[in-house]
Design goal:
Its EC number is 2.2.1.9. It is a single chain. The protein folds into three domains: 5-184, Thiamin diphosphate (ThDP)-binding fold, Pyr/PP domains (Rossmann fold, 3-Layer(aba) Sandwich), CATH 3.40.50; 207-360, Rossmann fold; 378-552, Thiamin diphosphate (ThDP)-binding fold, Pyr/PP domains (Rossmann fold), CATH 3.40.50. The termini are far apart. The protein has a six-stranded parallel β-sheet, with helices on both faces. Strands 15-14-16-17-19-18 form a six-stranded parallel β-sheet, sandwiched between helices. A five-stranded parallel β-sheet has the order 10-9-11-12-13. Helix 1 crosses helix 2 and helix 9 (264-272) crosses helix 22. Mean pLDDT is 92; it is low at 580-585. Strand 16 (446-451), helix 17 and strand 17 (471-477) form a beta-alpha-beta unit. The chain is built from 24 helices and 19 strands. The radius of gyration is 26 Å and the shape is globular.
Length: 585
């Protein structure tokens, strides 16, 4: 059977360059102006295409696929406001370093701003959140204008190479004139084998790092979002066994060791209310800060390190370094494994009680967390404790924003899991779509843990034909935006429930029926403990379990947890102990 192409050369070259640059997955939203692209891409034997009606959902669906493949995935839309619906996913890709390729069809220039339908000013529309914008020139059916084809070829190739090597979103805008639906079984263009635009390697001078390492007795390693790099066991062992090092991780860091500090806020929050806050934070203040991975969730660690800054801060990342704590010393543009492989022989292990002292407090928080759970009723906190007891080995879990990912960072899974969250912009707008895109790409058991506002906001994410049978959703329904009850402000004002918490009486049962998703609900911890093991065992059909928790109790229990730790851990005696005295100032 012959391959089918649009007769428009630019549509052909976009498809062929996608293949040449290794793009195998393209998410298409329906439209007329993008018909030349749809015809060519959907019929290409080397490209897998997916139809997602809602462009906002399509953008995040593709973003989830990029998380899984660690490679560019393209989205294709028609002209007009359709393109603008990609913007939330584009901004998330920009701040999360994900290679999302946006390909938009456009009207010819002479039809822009003359009152023609479905037209906006599309060139450079994402200019503040894009790595490269390729604004192609219009061509015509069977055109032999080699200057236009040459320009469009080079611009498209540059955009795709930028996405690949710089790991971020790019935009290709292609104007098409009518007729849009003409087809051919012949490839009317010849595309040369184009050169790679891989940037050259940056020379690394680690002299200051080595000097700081070998003279610092208080070193803090802070790891953010880590999607794609498998940190070598040798590196993890070196970091976890050094008495001068504390390694703090979040659940999205996707690295683990029995000596790592995984519940950052459980350490910092109680200290904030202590009489000797200043002395304790000075004891924790690192001389040297080493960071790698992406963005950090914890506001408390950001506040702490901005106020109690280290003498030096080094960031290791092949792409970029954020000066989150306003004290960045040096950025090493390489992978963590490569960096430590290069410097390891020059690093000395020195005597220190930094880890020993703070590890005592870490272990106490774990002990009292379990005791606290046994003293409280059924709330979000109690549910998350049970969730992490029941997560299966190697489960992929996507956590929605805002409360879901914050609760997740207070707990530790009994088994190894892979954790993801859209922390680039930290919005609630595409959590469901991202998780489904990832699940489609991986075909591995994948669970989304989401709050009610995030779930209902992105309910169109369920509107597709690709949800795998082993995809699961855990929906925490506390009848509103519970995170706003945790934040400062008067919760009793009339406007609070309507404009911040946005209380509601919705549930997901009818949505599940419409989208043919198996539905279960739980209203107590006993029901949760009974249903969760069965929930994770079933893989015959997509399913959702809706957990109903008390709206007016969750914030009290969460804030009460930090107060409970403060009251039961004798910080004063620890502060006066020999271990803190031996920790250098």
């Amino acid at each position: 059977m012959n391959q089918i192409y649009s007769t428009i050369p630019t549509a052909q070259l976009i498809a062929e360059l996608c293949v040449q640059n290794g793009i195998e997955h393209v998410v298409i939203s329906p439209g007329s102006r993008n018909a030349p692209l749809t015809i060519t891409l959907a019929n290409h034997p080397k490209i897998n295409t997916y139809s997602i009606v809602d462009e906002r959902c399509a953008g995040f669906f593709a973003l989830g696929m990029t998380q899984r493949f660690n490679a560019p995935v393209a989205v294709v839309c028609t002209s007009g406001s359709a393109l603008l619906n990609y913007y939330p996913a584009v901004s998330e890709a920009f701040y999360s370093n994900l290679p999302l390729v946006v390909i938009s069809a456009d009207r010819p220039p002479h039809l822009i701003d003359v009152g023609d339908g479905q037209t906006i000013r599309q060139p450079d529309v994402f200019k503040n959140h894009i790595l490269y914008s390729a604004n192609l020139k219009g061509d015509y059916h069977n055109s032999e204008d080699q200057s236009i084809l040459g320009f469009n070829t080079q611009e498209t190739h540059k955009a795709l190479q930028t996405a690949i090597w710089n790991q971020g979103p790019v935009h290709i805008n292609a104007p098409f004139d009518e007729p849009l639906y003409n087809k051919t079984d012949k490839l009317n263009i010849k595309i040369p084998k184009l050169n790679s635009l891989q940037p050259g390697k940056t020379e690394i001078d680690a002299t200051d790092f080595i000097k700081s390492w070998n003279s610092s007795v208080k070193k803090l390693v802070l790891v953010g979002v880590n999607l794609d790099e498998q940190i070598e066991e040798e590196v993890l062992k070196m970091l976890s066994s050094d008495p001068s090092i504390i390694v703090m991780t979040e659940i999205t860091s996707n690295i683990s060791d029995k000596n790592f500090f995984t519940n950052i806020d459980s350490i910092l929050a109680p200290i904030e209310s202590e009489a000797d806050t200043e002395k304790l934070f000075e004891a924790l203040q690192p001389e040297m800060l080493i960071t790698f991975g992406g963005l950090i969730v914890s506001k408390k660690i950001k506040k702490f390190l901005r106020q109690f800054q280290p003498q030096s801060h080094f960031h290791i990342d092949p792409r970029e370094a954020n000066d989150t704590f306003f004290c960045l010393t040096q950025h090493f543009e390489t992978s963590v494994n490569s960096f430590f492989d290069r410097v390891n022989s020059s690093l000395n292990k020195i005597d220190s009680s930094y880890f020993e002292f703070w590890n005592v407090l870490r272990l106490k928080t774990l002990q009292y967390r379990k005791l606290y759970k046994n003293e409280i009723g059924f709330t979000d906190f109690a549910f998350y404790y049970s969730l992490f007891e029941n997560l299966p080995q190697d489960e992929t879990v996507h956590f929605a924003n805002s409360s879901s990912i914050r609760y997740a960072n207070l707990f530790d899974s009994k088994r190894e899991i892979k954790a993801f969250a859209n922390r680039g912009t930290s919005g609630i707008d595409g959590s469901t779509s991202t998780a489904i895109g990832y699940a489609v790409a991986s075909q591995e058991p994948t669970t989304l843990v989401t709050g009610d506002l995030s779930f209902f906001y992105d309910s169109n994410g369920l509107w597709n034909n690709y949800i795998p049978r082993n995809f699961k959703i855990i929906l925490l329904n506390n009848a509103g935006g519970g995170i706003f009850r945790i934040l400062p402000g008067n919760k009793e004002e009339d406007y609070f429930a309507n404009y911040f918490e946005t209380t509601h009486n919705l549930n997901a049962k009818n949505l599940c029926e419409m989208y043919k998703i198996q539905y279960t609900e739980a209203h107590s911890l006993e029901e949760v403990d009974k249903e969760l093991p069965l929930f994770f065992e079933r893989n015959e059909t997509p399913q959702l379990i809706e957990i109903f928790t008390p709206r007016l109790e969750n914030d009290k229990v969460l804030l009460g947890y930090f107060d409970y730790l403060r009251k039961h851990i004798d910080f004063q005696s620890v502060l006066n102990s020999k271990s803190i005295e031996s920790a250098p100032n």
